[in-house]
DNA sequence: CCACATTCCCCCACTTTTCCCCACGAATCA
DNA sequence: TGATTCGTGGGGAAAAGTGGGGGAATGTGG
């Protein structure tokens, strides 16, 4: 299994396009088909991008859950409601739809961050706050039970 | 099982490359295949380097945990988000990507420090602060229950 | 149903980074 | 003192990221 790893600084051009880091394209392209992906938002304030196959597994899981649950409905309104699917253009870029761009506060410089099964797209300042050393140290304490 | 031990002063060249100490290469190359490794960051402010096999075990463990957990997500954003995998070039060097170089404050002189299963790469001043006698003395006290 | 504006995607061109390869110098050992 | 090993430096081809022009597609308003 190949995973998304690492962080890369890329730039969103005037047309709202960004190049996906080459390393991420390799992971996406397990078999070298179309490289389709689904992009949505994360409550932390960034965008999340899934390979289409991974996203579809999530959808099936959601489908199988009790649909009357209000919390689930709220969650789906968020995750699915923001979702945008697309493919890479021939230069390996994706187009970030204006609402998503605005949600994540993306200007010219954006960070790609790999987190195993998917990757995220961040505004630099927000990323720094979310992954600062202090924050990580305190989180590590709480996790120590898990592994 | 061979372990990483000792400290070595090497230099990062203008292109961001450093030679891995020969003793470490021997440990990495249990069988003399590709010598692949994964480099990431540590909250203490240095870089950590794992043989690829060791790193993959970590990833598998993380994958098996509940993915909705916010603390885990923060942790992965940090550990995996900074990770960079690579191989040694024919001179036994690795390329330290600019974001990692900056994170760890690496300039020309860098220290390699072996810590059993993995090794670290340090800026000299930071290493001195992190391993000063006073600090180690106080830490040793707290450990006395463990062994 | 037809103009018109807008969005999207292809192509091309430029710059920067990465990764080969070769070569030098210091240290070690015979 | 020659030979080998190890760390260091640089040249150059290839790859990756960036930006812009223009045609096709889409959607909107008359």
Care to describe what's here?
- The structure is a homodimer of 147-residue chains.
- By secondary structure, chain A is α+β, with helices and mostly antiparallel strands.
- Chain A has a single domain (7-143), classed as Transcriptional regulator MraZ domain (Chemotaxis protein chec), CATH 3.40.1550.
- Chain A is 36% helix and 27% strand.
- Chain A has six helices and eight strands; from the N terminus they run E-E-H-E-E-H-H-E-E-H-E-E-H-H.
- The first copy, chain A, has helices spanning 22-28, 52-63, 70-79, 98-103, 124-130, 133-143, and strands at 7-11, 17-19, 36-41, 47-51, 84-87, 93-95, 109-115, 118-123.
- In chain A, the strands form two sheets. The first copy, chain A, has a six-stranded antiparallel β-sheet. A two-stranded antiparallel ribbon of chain A has the order 2-6.
- In chain A, strand 7 (109-115) and strand 8 form a beta hairpin.
- The longest helix of chain A is centred in the middle third of the chain and has 12 residues, at 52-63.
- Chain A is globular and about 40 Å long.
- The two termini of chain A are 21 Å apart.
- The relative contact order of chain A is 0.23.
- The mean pLDDT of chain A is 92.
- The interface between A and B is medium-sized, with 25 and 26 residues.
- Chain B binds a DNA duplex (30 and 30 nucleotides) through loops.
